[in-house]
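Researcher: I'd like a structural prediction for the single chain below. Treat it as a standalone chain; there are no partners to consider.
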Amino acid sequence: MKPQDDQSLLRSDRREVISSSVGVSRSIRLARLFARAALPAALIMWMLSLRNVNVLGMGVFGLVEILPVAFWVAAALLTFGFCAALFDRRTGDRLYAGYVLALIAMLHATVPIVYGHLSDNWAWKHVSMIDVLLRVGELPIVHDRGLDLYNQWPGFFALNAVVVEATGIDSALSYAAWGPAVADALLLGPLIILYRSFSRSRRLSWAAAWVFYTCLWVTQDYFAPQTLTFLLYVTVLAVVVRRVPRSRGTPSIARGEAARRPSIGWTLLVLSIVAAITCSHPLTPVMLIITLAALAVPRRNRRTVLPILLGTVVLNLAWDLTVARPFFSANVRDMVQGLTQPESNASAGLLDLASATDAQVLVAWTDRALSGSVWLLAAAALVFRPSLRRTPLPLLAGAPLVLLTLNSYDGEMLFRAYMFSLPAMAFGATALLAVARPRRWARRLVLPVALPALFVGFTICYFCNPDGATALYFTRSEVAASRWLFDHAPRGAVVAAVTEDVPAGYTDYDRYPSVWIELQEEPVKKRFATDPAGTLGSLVADRKGPVYLMLNRAQEGRIRATGLIPMSLKKIDNMIAGHPGFRVVFQNKDAKVYLFTPTKSREG
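Model: Treating it as a single chain, here is the predicted structure.
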């Protein structure tokens, strides 16, 4: 080949390289502009989309079927804008944080904005606990297992009582509806600290945070003690993992501090967080002990982890043997029995799809797909990303699964174990999705396909209520009926309902004993469906005060979706309306309040 031919080929190659680099540079500039414009545009569109949403139009699929098209367009704009930010290596933490906080707002602020008030009946219950604590100065013992449990782990309620008194507001009801959004926003800081301990990559850490929030479908972030203690749990792990020494030979993993014994001040600070967990929730301290024990397995971690682990064990034992001793004394037999049933513990809580409704089947398969995907991807990441095996990630992901075999936790252990393992699982799954591919175009398509799919999956699991969409939302008429009841019922009156789906149903629970048909034994529930007067009379036979029975729209939705009792609430209402022992004392379009006067059934 002639020299001039070589030179022409060289010039041609240079032109191709320059052209390619110019093309890449142009793509990066376009991605950068789109990422900066998409965030405010998505937020504006999201807020505008929530105006005039007809909540009463909800069917079996909940909010998913009534949210306008503009909401989904805003979600798509936010997701693809975040993908564009990930494409640009120069994207800063502020923009990433803006996107993830906007994601949290879309996922968790949509419900309180659309509903206009607190909706979850468990959150209403916790607000009532705080109100009683502020009035009495303690959580009274009423010999109800479900309520006395709060007396033995009062940390969450005491903290909120301090907030209410310090701010001068009337009740925690003023802010409880925003609990999920606030808690998840506060969780972001510890989560990023934890992820920066696994990798120095900004993009990987923030992408993992996005995956975490879109896979946190278990609805355990409402206004509850579990929400607070999960936040503190991740905080403890973040500061401990950040301090443990790193194994050598992991250049892609962030370097921690040199191995040295932690200071007394640092240890006391971490243990103060552990103390807050210990006095607020029964399960989270056990999860923390198991996870810290797993972290202490590698010898290099023990100097940092063992003082915290030993302190956590001592604090937990001290609390359980004193304040929480009544609970453990009453339930020790069930706990021991649970140790002998590992298979049933692990499968407890799974829905029987053979008898499920279409909405329940959709939600069940979606949450199983989300959970299974993140677990499988995280496991695969440990195979294809060897550097992750030299981090605490496998220990953090696997430790919570141990409790699956030890106790069913009333059918919720599977979901709690998933939640506690999710911070590590989400990072592992993201590390696999973001790993370089032989073909650059394939790598660029992975996250733009995966992240929108995760968003849609989350909304199906979180915005649909498999137990009935109407049970998830209380109308203003239902709230008005409940307020009338507690304003007019004399002290000592019994408050009864078919299900617990009564707004503020535990108001002044130390003054108003309650009877919930759904919590009774199966024969009692079946009898109530055919003889409501006789059944209710026998349940309140030892009570001296008047008895009020409230029937409302949310209860009807729960019964229709779950079959808690073998008859619709409407038919039960018809039987009650024709019985001389029941008299309507309040009624609006969504609720009725009956005054029940038992006769022979009460005497029996």
